[in-house]
Amino acid sequence: TIGPARQRIEGRMAPSSSMGGPVSSASSSSPSLRKRQIDALVRLLNLNEPVSKAMSKNASAVGAGASTHQAGEGTYKVLVLDPFTRDVITPLLRLNDLRKCGVTLYLLIDSERQNVPDVPAVYFLRANESNVARLCQDLAVGTYDVAHLNFCAPLADAQLQELASGLTKHNCMQRVAKLYDQNLAFVSLEKDLFSLMLPRAYVSLNDPSARDTEIERAVTDIVDGLFCAIATWGSVPVIRCKRGGAAEHVARALDAYLRRHLGQRGNAFSAAKHGGSFHRPLLVLFDRNFDLTPQIQHCWTYHALVHDVLGLRLGRTTVATEASPAQPGVSAGQKKSYDVGPGDFFWEENGGRPFPKVAEEVEEQLNKYKRDMAAINAHTSGAGGGASDGDEDLQANTKNLMNAVSSLPELTERKRTIDKHTNVATALLKEIKDRQIDNFVSVEEDLFSGKADKAQVLKVVTSPKGLVSDKLRLVATWLLTSEQVPAASDLEEVEQCLAGAGAGLEALQYLKRLRSLSLTGSQRAFAVPAGGAGSSNQGNILDLADKFMSKGLDAVTKGMKNLMSQGHTLAVTRAVQALLEAKPGAEEQDNYLHFDPKLPRGAAPAPAKPGYRDAMVCVIGGGNYLEYHSLQEMSKRVQPRCNLVYGATEMLAPCEFLQQLTELGNKGK
Prior knowledge:
The structure is a single chain. The protein is an alpha/beta fold. It has 28 helices and 15 strands. The protein has a 7-stranded mixed β-sheet, with helices on both faces. Helix 1 (4-11) crosses helix 8, helix 15 packs antiparallel against helix 16 and helix 25 packs parallel to helix 27. It is globular, with a radius of gyration of 28 Å.
């Protein structure tokens, strides 16, 4: 029985179909997941009215001679966030974007806040006990006259009852204008990349000492986040996952969740218009243990290197500056942060390219900028032609000057982007030199192709150069890519060398247990030579690194072009491609479970058919940029071409993942 208090709060809840406006199904012509999430956030900030309607309301109010308060009542507002929702917004909307949406002040809910009369408050929060309690406290004391409540994931019954009871107890229900489930408990980091921002999910799902309730809580959080991503995506997918492990557990829970939701009137998909089953999107779930090597190995592509070496969080990276005569006020070692991501043309175009190519592109873009500036100067430097037709010369010069002025902002912004990536590339090059990352990449590439053995691994491990963490990652890659688990004597020899270098062995102990239980294994079967020169003729970039400051990136890259000239197809990429192509008799068709939330429970799903136009891949336990770019490249090769979105419980740098493996190794002692 629903009590009166809960009935009153439910009366203020918006129906699912209006949460963020009409939902269109995913298709080749529809907006990206990131664009959909940005649109939903903008609607949220416009008090959940369509943006054009809200703007027209304000315009008509001002035009009618309304007072400032009346005209701005629907425009100016206070935004109240918690740490999670702040991180959702940070990579998507900048401060200027918030100002355009009428946000004059944004605050964290757990901070001390003063009363702001006559201005509505927009709350965007996770639905947890502490947030609900603080929300009720704000409304009880009248911190804001009117509150628009937005929760990033659907409210559970217990949380809804708690909220209703708190508001009734303090007699402040009238201050709630509306309550919305926004389905935004994830963050879009790139156009087709998202994170559920669930830290330590891998530990939570693989902890041998975890209680069942803790595992169920972790699965529930993952399902909530995945549902939000799917609802924003706009289509109910067919779900595939490998048998066993965390992926199957999540798939079954997600299937049940979607079935319950689809049974509700006005659900989040009610406005979507789907074609036949042929055009249904595909969702593929993977357990991180399916292939651990991409999460550990050293990478050579731009996004992956920045994430691994410099650190990349929510579209921002930080580098240590170098002393330069051109910048007398900047001293060596100072930290400088840069925003990267969609909207940064260089980041978008070069994210999946090898670092040498990126370095060359920096130099090329700089030269292009110089040529464009020289062309502008040439057109505006003075009058040309004879004096017989001065009016025509004046008109031509005026036109050239106007064109130059109009193009200067774009050129200035391009130069700022080039300078940013020059500094990032310089910082990467310094780390590559100091840590000998090129050597680790080369040996690991040989491990994938079966050319390296224990002797080569030992040679690197016993070298005085290189970080201990890099050596540990190399040994872990050797352990995971060996066709058979290395002999105990070989492992002991390598471990002794690692221990002598100061490395902890807990992560290796955990990986050995996984391999002995066949929970993860060699991925060398997926190695596919891409041709080209081998590692024997790779240039030594360490000798060239010092030339960077004086000769530029083009001098450095001449000796780096052959590095990683051999590639391998990642296990996740190969599996997804097989599921997209749906070839009869393929191993993936038999070994992957099939869930369709739109079919009656117990009904057998139809045989898989090729032709998926949209697909989402989510890795339970952590994702990385190496898999992201590998899947994007594959999606352009398959026929028909597929719009593919990659996501994970969190985007993990290799050293962060090693810390989680170490924690599990300690717990398994």
